[in-house]
Structure formats: C-alpha cells, structure tokens
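testing teh design pipeline on a random one, pls ignore if ur not involved
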C-alpha cells in the first residue's frame, strides 16, 4: 500500500447531511430527462429481468477480497472514517479487486457495494487521496446513482457483445445514461472532497487517474494550467471534437473534473458546507422550481462556455484568413 502518513487533523463530521448538498444541478436535470424517455422503463425492466440482483453481485465480487478489520485493515480504517464523515446511513460492503487501473466503482440494485481496484492502493499517496476516492463512491450510493450506473455498465457490455436487447430504444436510453453519468461524476467528486476535506488531495487524485504518475513525477499546478488550456484553447475543429470525444464516455475528462472541483471550492461552497450550512436529511427537499432553475443555470453556463469556445475559435480562423489575404 502507498504511504499513508498524512498529518493527523480533525475533520468535520457532516451529521445528517442530505446528498442534495453536494449534487451538481446538471446531474439532477440529466436524471430527470433520462426518466422521461418513453422507452426507459421498458429497457430497465428487460435488463434487470435478465439479470437480477444476485447474479450482478456475484459477477462483480467473484475476483475480489472483502475489506474488514482482518483484511486490508488500513483501508478498512479509512473507509470507516469516510462513512462517519459523510454520516452514511449504512455500511456498504467494500471489496478490493486485483486490477492495475487506478479506479473504483459503486454497483448494485437494492444492496449497493463498492469495488476498489488494487492499482489505486499502490499509486495513491497519502490517506486523503484514498479518502477522496472512497468518499466519491459513497457519494454515488447516497445520491441514489448505483442503480443507473449498474444499468449503464450492463448496457455497454451488451452493446459490445451485440446482444439483441440493444435495439434502437435501448441505444437511446444508453446515450441518455451516458450524459447523466458524466454529470453524476461531478456530484460524486464533491462528496469525495467533503469526505477527505483536503481539496488539493482530490485534485492530485484526478491527476493520477489521468496520467498515473507519482508525486515526484507530477505537478498539480501544471495539471490545472493544462485543464484551463484544454477548456479555452484550440481552433474550431478542436471545439467540435471536445464535444464528440465525450459522447461515448461514462466520465468527464479528468482535467475537466479537476478544474470543476477547483471552481466549486473557490466559489466558497466547500467552506460553507464545512461551516455546517447544508441541507439535512430531515428537512424538506427544495421546491422543484428552485431545483429546475439551478439546473438551467448550470446548463446555460456550460452552453455559454461552449459557445465562447466556438466563437473564439471562429474569430481566430477569420483573422488567420484575413491575414493570409494580406500577404497575397
């Protein structure tokens, strides 16, 4: 296991925190849109009618070791800290799978569980990076994401195998699931930051998920500069491909997730929650109009950013053409 000798410090326990506190408004909007697809319920019934809870659990857990006090005790300690920090309503089973890719996942239907890849333990340096990754997955479960995430994984695998259930309707559902899945990752990233309570560790984890380098080989500041360059730079063709490259992806690009986290922290939302200013599970949910307005703002900002990228790229192309004519 990687070095886990972070300086001990008190973490704020977020008692009775409601998942809506960390959920990205675009996540909620995409999920609402997904549920309104006419074929969605039918595809859901077909997929889960074919598999069911038990076979899915067995498939994911067949080559994994369950974490406990006597197996991976340090991971068990960190995981217990995360559950307590987020005041999780249950202790979801955690398994470690022998997989070199640095990643983790939360799956299941009625009984969610988490799979942590062994590569994550080997590469992530320090307790806070692992806390972030574990908190990210707990956030998925507490936000009710696991049913749809599991469905996404199954549909992708069936599509790759050419299984007949993947018809036109199911493909439409899959595309909608992928759009929602990318937004859901932004929500879970915020939960991970709240679990670790060390934003830089969260962004370092993103950098390692992207490139796999050690602390000695990488620099977080340079990675964030790269993120800004990716969001703002390039020509018109680059702007188009930034959209197309994401269409078949379950996750946003890691550079974008790191930048999104940095923006969220800098806006003061993270500090506000640590001060105790968050919605509790005992409180009424926000009015649907308020939720819808927040989602609309999020998508408007995203669309505005994309429009600015296209406009800026088009301007540069126009200037280049004009300059070329001047030289003729």
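output:
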């Amino acid at each position: 296991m990687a070095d886990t000798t972070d300086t001990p410090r008190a973490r704020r326990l977020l008692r009775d925190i409601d998942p809506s506190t960390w959920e990205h408004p675009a996540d909620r909007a995409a999920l609402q849109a997904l549920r309104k697809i006419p074929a969605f319920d039918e595809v859901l019934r077909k997929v889960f009618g074919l598999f069911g809870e038990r076979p899915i659990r067995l498939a994911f857990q067949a080559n994994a070791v369950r974490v406990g006090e006597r197996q991976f005790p340090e991971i068990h300690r960190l995981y217990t800290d995360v559950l307590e920090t987020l005041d999780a309503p249950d202790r979801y089973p955690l398994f470690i799978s022998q997989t070199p890719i640095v990643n983790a996942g939360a799956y299941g239907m009625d009984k969610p569980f988490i799979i942590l890849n062994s590569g994550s333990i080997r590469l992530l340096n320090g307790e806070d990076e692992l806390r972030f990754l574990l908190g990210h997955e707990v956030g998925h479960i507490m936000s009710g994401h696991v049913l749809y995430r599991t469905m996404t994984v199954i549909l992708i695998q069936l599509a790759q195998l050419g299984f007949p259930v993947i018809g036109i309707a199911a493909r439409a559902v899959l595309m909608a699931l992928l759009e929602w899945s990318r937004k859901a990752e932004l929500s879970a990233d915020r939960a991970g930051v709240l679990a670790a309570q060390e934003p830089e560790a969260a962004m370092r984890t993103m950098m390692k998920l992207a490139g796999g380098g050690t602390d000695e080989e990488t620099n977080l500041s340079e990675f964030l500069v790269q993120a800004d360059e990716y969001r703002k730079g390039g020509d018109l063709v680059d702007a188009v491909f930034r959209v197309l490259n994401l269409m078949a992806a379950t996750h946003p690009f890691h550079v974008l997730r790191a930048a999104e986290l940095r923006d969220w922290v800098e806006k003061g939302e993270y500090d506000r929650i640590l001060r105790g200013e968050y919605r509790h599970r005992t409180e009424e949910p926000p009015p649907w109009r308020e939720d819808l307005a927040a989602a609309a703002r999020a998508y408007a900002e995203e669309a505005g950013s994309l429009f600015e990228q296209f406009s800026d790229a088009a301007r540069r192309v126009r200037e280049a053409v004009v300059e070329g004519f001047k030289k003729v």
